[in-house]
Amino acid sequence: MNVMMLLEMAASGLGDRVAVGSLENGITYQQLFEQAGEAAARFRADPGAKVVLCDESSPAVPVALFGAAWAGMPYVPLNYRLPDDDLRGLAERSTPGVAIGDDAGASRLRTVDGLTAVTRDTFLADRAGGADATTPGDWSMDPEEIAVLLFTSGTTGAPKSAVLRHKHLVSYILGSVEFMGAGENEATIVSVPPYHVAGVSAMLSSVYAGRRIVQLPKFDADDWIDTVERENVTHAMVVPTMLARIVEALDARGGEPMLSVRALSYGGGKMPEPVIRRALDLFPITNFVNAYGLTETSSTIALLGPDDHRIAQYSEDESERARLKSAGRPLPGVEVSIRDPEFNEVAPGEVGEIYVRGEQVAGEYVEKGSLLDDGGWFPTRDGGFIDDAGYLFIQGRNDDVIIRGGENMSPGEIEDVMLTDTRVKEAAAIGVPDVEWGEKVVAVVVRHDDACTEAELQDLIRSRLRSSRVPAHIVFVDELPYNDTGKLLRRVLREDHAHLGDDPTD
Amino acid sequence: MVELKPGARFQSTVCTTEVIVVKGDGDVDLLCGGAAMVPAGTGEVAGEPAADAAGGTLLGKRYSDEADSIELLATKAGDGSLAVGDAALDVAQAKTLPASD
Hints:
The complex is a heterodimer of chains A (506) and B (101).
Chain A lengths: L3 H11 L3 E3 L6 E2 H15 L6 E5 L5 H12 L3 E3 L6 H9 L4 E5 L1 H7 L5 E5 H6 L20 E6 L9 E5 H11 L10 E4 L6 H13 L2 E4 L5 H10 L4 E4 L1 H13 L10 E4 L6 H10 L4 E8 L4 E6 L1 H9 L3 H5 L6 E2 L3 E6 L12 E7 L5 E2 L3 E2 L7 E9 L5 E6 L4 E3 L2 E3 L1 H9 L4 E11 L3 E10 L6 H11 L8 E4 L13 H7 L10
Parallel strand pairs in A: 3-4, 3-5, 5-6, 9-10, 9-11, 11-12, 12-13, 25-26
Antiparallel strand pairs in A: 1-2, 7-8, 13-14, 14-15, 16-17, 17-20, 18-19, 20-21, 22-23, 24-25
Helix pairs in contact in A: 1-2, 1-8, 2-3, 9-10, 10-11
Chain B lengths: L1 E3 L4 E3 L6 E6 L2 E3 L1 E3 L2 E2 L1 E2 L22 E3 L6 E6 L5 E3 L2 E2 L1 E2 L10
Antiparallel strand pairs in B: 1-4, 2-3, 2-7, 3-9, 5-6, 5-10, 8-9, 8-12, 10-11
């Protein structure tokens, strides 16, 4: 197996259809196939190297991804938003390599020993070797070869390098995408960066489905809306912070509904319920999908589909409305199990750690090896439960669990209650060190309306949850810290507010 | 007879058809165009499909047996049609999973 097989099929079945870019001057599947082959011929001049990318979304992304696969080299997209020292650290861990970047990216990597850096423009313009340089189909079909190395975002510690082998990615695509399933007029807008797992899976699934890729290099909500309209985009995937900004931008434009988007999927973090409810209004005929997945699982492992979204939007039934907070059901071919700390499966409705198993589940890091157990189960380190109807609910990272006086509590349940006050815009609950309790609960809140007070929110939580959940302090701030793909940086909040743990007044 | 296992690839010897095994295990009499299929890249193509096995194989379609114990994905199209022994393999129902990325 090799992900090149997916592109070869698309080139053979839909050669003249535009794969990437605008209808007027984009590149076709056949052209993408040829460029990948030419890139592979050049990559092969450095056997044993990796293909490192330090670029925003551009046509160089699919060419490098498929070219690396053709050449039998791992594709390693780096986070170009990292400060120089951090980027350099990751780049040094990715040597020897051939590096491709925009002008800034290439020049930042040029001084790294063991990397040969070229600019994106040079890379795409260099047709040396020509179509004759490689034999179509001469890529390795060894399913164990490494296709992609992705550095995890490191929200809880130093970034680890997740290993995705060809067998994982091909299994994911064959298990979830129908070949040429997209109509000729379909296009998807890719606004997640290339170094995000969704930035990889979007390339693979769009190519296999035959859905044109429109790339948005720097996310901006107004730009997103304008691009969707200009490029006749029908499909989109966004992270929660992007959807929140799109909703705000649409409201600022007068709240006119967008009817042209047929499908909108979201994932990569916790979606605030008010945002998704407003989005359902603003995209009244769009098919919404909530996708839950991890880098280590080749992207999506469970999804909440369009019908469940609309039922949750219009239903009077509390449990049906609550489905909007669910990640839905596992994909076919993926098993999900909720386990207690002794590895026993818990009953429906009970919270535990989410374990996952399936052919797309890689669960492996360069630094630590495979984390799969003998039965093939991967511990996600996400907490959650499955309800009676089989819907999966995610309750956040286990690393984020607050342990107060021996009692484990999920930040999510405290945050959900605060967000029911319409004056609260964003809310985070964290644990800070406390001499008496081990940890105590602190909430950090962004308000729409300054009239909302600490005492009111404490009363609200007290009325809905056990008293142990009531934050000892509620701090009001102008904004919460997120990384660029919308993950809340709880580690930063814990550091910033650690001093509250020593507060002698409680 | 060839040994099926997920990920294994086979080619027709009488047309351009190639398949990859999505589901299936063990030794089976895998045919395309009435002739035995061989591991991909190991055989020459000669002749043409038998008249009763020339319905064609379509790129990207999945083919399964009646018991749904075997599923093959056509990675290259061809004029021959697929069978296991006497039993023709039919196009499996397309999946209707919504796009998630």
